[in-house]
Task: structure prediction
Amino acid sequence: MAFTNLATSLTSAISGLNATQAAINATAHNIVNANTEGYVRKEQEQDSRIIAGRGAGVDIGQVQRITDEFLTAEVRRQASITGKSLAIETYFGRTQDAFSDPAAGNDIGNRIGSLAAAIEAFANDHETLATAQNVLSNAAESARTIENLANRVQILRSEANRDVAAMVESINADLVLIDDLNDEIARVFKTGQQNPDLLDKRDLALRQLSEKIEIDTYYQDNGSLAVYTVGGEALVDATARVLYYSAAGEITPDAYLTPLSIFRPDQIDTDTGEPIDPNAGVEMVSGGIRARLTPELLGDATPDADQQIVSRFGGGRLQGLIEMRDEHFPDLTDQLHELAEALRFGLNEASNDTVAWPLASSLSGTRTDLSDFAGATRSGTTTIAVIDSADGSTLNAFQIDIGAVTDETDLITQINTGLGALGTASIGTDGQLEITLADTSHGVAIAEGDSSITLTDAAGRDRDYGFSHYFGLNDIYVNDGPFPTDLSVRSDLMADPAKLGTAKLDVTNPPLVATVGGPGDNRGAKALAEAINANQTMIARGKLPQRNVDVSSYAAEIVAVTATEARRFEDQVETDLALAEAINFKADSVTSVNLDEELASLMELQQAYSVSARLITSIDEMFDELINALR
Result:
């Protein structure tokens, strides 16, 4: 009986020694991994051993990770929120760099303000060639600034698009890593054991993935973890899915962007990396042009669903990049297009109702597509006069009833009839209207009168043009590219500033009398000054609502709204980072290693180990005494 009791005591002591040793190992592992990223504190489980209803020592259990699943999920969720705001804030900062600092005086609002000041100086001193040259220099610089800004915005959009593709590749790498860890964890799980360090690595991979894309997770029976998008699309279950996106190089405002889809590995060609059937995947970001369709896109013949980009992702850097690419940058491009169109329309409208001194003996329009002339709403009368440039006398004047003209061919006939032997009108090889006088010492002058040619643009907005304005016979700005921001000053005007209009053609009727103001007439120059400061109807573009405003103020509003949005996201990032730090701190208070606590625990375990060892020694001595007593 004594032998049995001593044997039981020895077994208990040995089990205590083993349990303490296991706990020491877990504590030591905590200490050496205190600075390992993603490491979670471990505790050695142990339980009292019961045999035949009596205590028989201690059983060693599994090494347990000390975690809080709710806090872990909150950490991932906040990582997605912060990742999105960081991506947006980064690109807004780069946009701010492109637009420069308004306080430095070189932003687009100040640039157009300088143009307005130059035109005002020209109106007050129109006979000095230098003032005309200053107007044209400022006009050209304003156009270049707008075009450069539009190009820069498009470059940033292209960079965001490439970053989307790079983020997709990074997400795919994370999914493969999580799937590999799942496989290792499942293999260990089959043995009835677990490897807590593998779980740490998987949690770290999930956290890194959460910064890029918002996810949901679900535990499976074999210990692995299924990963889904917030919309419920599988990213990792039995295997890792593949996100596929084909990014173009530089993209234009009207470029079609391909979809971003999720595919199973067997749906991807292993040789090319391309989907075997592009339509077989789950579309997460639709193909299209942009996220918010403009009035122009809403009104065209293409179905809206084929043009609008819709993302099914929630938070994360990927979604932030998509929003910059498909919402913020297109909106900003719209505003620059609206600005360029308003600047061109306003100054060209005023310039086409002016005449330069000396008068030009030929006029060539800038509009090359006259197909909408016949069907346009037309009314009113314009006056064309031939002036002797030597003395300013009127050689001939006639009027054309724009509403009574059937088409552009009929118009040419009527102009030729009015000019008689003094000149000819024709449609040039590029499709523009040309008026050429027979004698280069004569000049042609046009008064718009009440002529009106109303066109509805692609945005559904009605634009009223006078006769000369419609054909562009005396434009300042020309559009030399596919987009409104492709703007430049007419080349012959830049070469000869004296061609900038200063005077007006005076018309009375009946009887028809047309006289042109001479070199002292500055009414045309004043009309330019009024035009640059006149309000125009700007339709809603991005964050800017529809309103009546002058171009300089509209340009300043573009800069101000962009700066406001940049500051808003700076504040948002600060808020998100602060919240993430608070949640991480709370989670770390549960999972991280506290060296002071671990060292204190180690000392306690060391003492327990010593006690167990002494107990074994004592029991061994008792065995010796018992054996000697029986001899």
About this structure: The radius of gyration is 40 Å. The CA atoms of residues 478 and 491 lie 9 Å apart. The chain has three domains: 2-66+593-630, 72-85+157-332, 99-155+340-562.
